[in-house]
Amino acid sequence: MKLEDFGYTDTLEKFRKENHLENFETGRVITEHKERYIVKTVTGEYEAEITGNMRFTAKSREDFPAVGDWVALTTYDSDVAIIYKILPRFSTIKRQAIGHFGEIQIIATNVDYAFLVQAIDRDYNINRLERYLTICNSSKVKPIIVLSKIDLIDESRVNEILTNIKARIKNVPVVAISNETPNGFKTINKFIEKGKTYCMLGSSGVGKSTLLNNLSGKNIMKTDTISESTNKGRHITSYRELIILENGGILIDNPGMKEVGIADTDGGLEITFDRIVTLSKNCKFKDCTHTSEIGCSVLEAVENGDIDKASYENYLKMEREKAHFESSESERRKKDKTFGKMVKNYKKDSLKNS
Fold first, then answer.
1. Where are the alpha helices (DSSP H) in 229-296?
2. pLDDT tens-digit profile, the chain (354 residues)
3. CA dihedral 290, 292, 295, 296 (to 10 degrees)
4. What phi and psi values does residue 15 have, to the nearest 5 degrees?
5. pTM
6. What is the C-alpha separation between 354 and 351, in angstroms, rounded?
7. Domain ranges within the chain, ordered by starting residue
8. How far is residue 274's CA from residue 307's CA, in Å, rounded to a whole number?
9. Phi and psi dihedrals of 296, rounded to 5?
């Protein structure tokens, strides 16, 4: 197997040479579990750790390897490796870290496309789809909406949901699939290209592992049934994993996400809600909040039915969430900077007194 088979590009090779990394092997992180990594190279798979220097100089979680990363490493005979450097990422899918305001959790890196999977019978939620779209748009990842388990509801309801999505979300492919029949899988396979990386985003129990098994033609991931007592999917995937499909596509399977906190710092909201953003330029006041102002073009469009009211309310909610996250992040960085100065001054005083 060549590096190109699991996504290596000429841009990465140019960076490797310019940064004099020829003496290191190159590999891709395919599994991450509690800061231990499995890295795939042309010679095999290695259990890897980062260097002490990488750990010491890391300013945030984004400075640690993640599934999808290309890394420079040294390998040893015992299938063990040390990671020395992360090569540049062309995309990073991330969200707010649960329970840690102002901090980022990386879901996957170097992803070209994301399958946004929802079970149409019980998990379907268009507001959450807009959240996933915002994450993709801010991460420079192309989204594809996948509605699974269409065999569990009647055809008229499926068509109604598809119509609603297409009316509210523009220019994003929507594929409806059944986990019991081949319906829809031929369409999904048309999106998969050799050397491109895909990931699946969705809640537990929506059929991501079943989708992976069907795309690969193998029983790679364990699947489970819906709990009869709670009508919720049982959590199967507990860590992120990268799998190479038979047709040459590269797929990252992620754990189900209970929360999808927005950490939008790259204009994802503006892309997802481009109609609202465009209209806001015509508002009477430049600092219009689109909530109660006279002369607000956005409110006028909502009242006239030109903008879906539920989508508008979802936009406002995510805007508030984004502002809160950015405020929390700024406060955290300020505290980190203050702490760093305190440590630096302590070291200076210690040297003076020694």
1. 268-272, 274-280
2. 789 988 999 999 999 999 999 999 999 999 888 788 999 999 989 999 999 999 999 888 889 999 999 999 999 877 899 999 999 999 998 877 665 555 778 889 999 999 999 988 877 889 989 988 998 998 889 999 999 889 888 989 999 999 999 989 989 999 999 867 777 888 898 999 999 999 988 887 777 777 888 787 666 555 444 334 334 443 333 456 778 888 889 998 766 555 566 665 567 888 899 899 999 999 999 889 999 899 999 999 999 999 999 999 999 988 888 887 777 665 555 655 564 555 555 456 556 665
3. 20
4. -60, -45
5. 0.78
6. 5
7. 3-86, 92-253, 268-335
8. 11
9. -85, 115
Domain with residues 3-86, CATH architecture: Beta Barrel (2.40)
Whole-angstrom distance, CA of residue 170 vs CA of residue 99: 33
268-335: CATH topology is Ribonucleotide Reductase Protein R1; domain 1 (1.10.40)
What's the fold here for domain 92-253?
Answer: Rossmann fold (3.40.50)
Pick the closest to residue 200 from 114, 126, 130 (CA basis): 114
Q: Cβ distance 165 to 129 under 8 Å?
A: yes
Report residue 292 as tokens: 């109660």
Q: How far apart are CA 274 and CA 301, in angstroms?
A: 13
The residues with which 241 forms a beta bridge, in sequence order, are: 31, 253
Cα dist from 146 to 34, 83, 102, 271, 286, whole Å: 30, 35, 30, 20, 38
Give the C-alpha separation, 107 to 115, whole Å. Answer: 13
Burial of residue 318, with CB atoms counted within 10 A of its CB: 0-12 exposed, 13-18 middle, 19 or more buried: buried
Q: How many helices (H) and strands (E) does the chain have?
A: 10, 13
Q: What are phi and psi of 119, to 5 degrees?
A: -80, 120
Which residues contact residue 74 at a Cβ distance below 8 angstroms, ignoring those fewer than 6 apart?
24, 25, 81, 82, 84
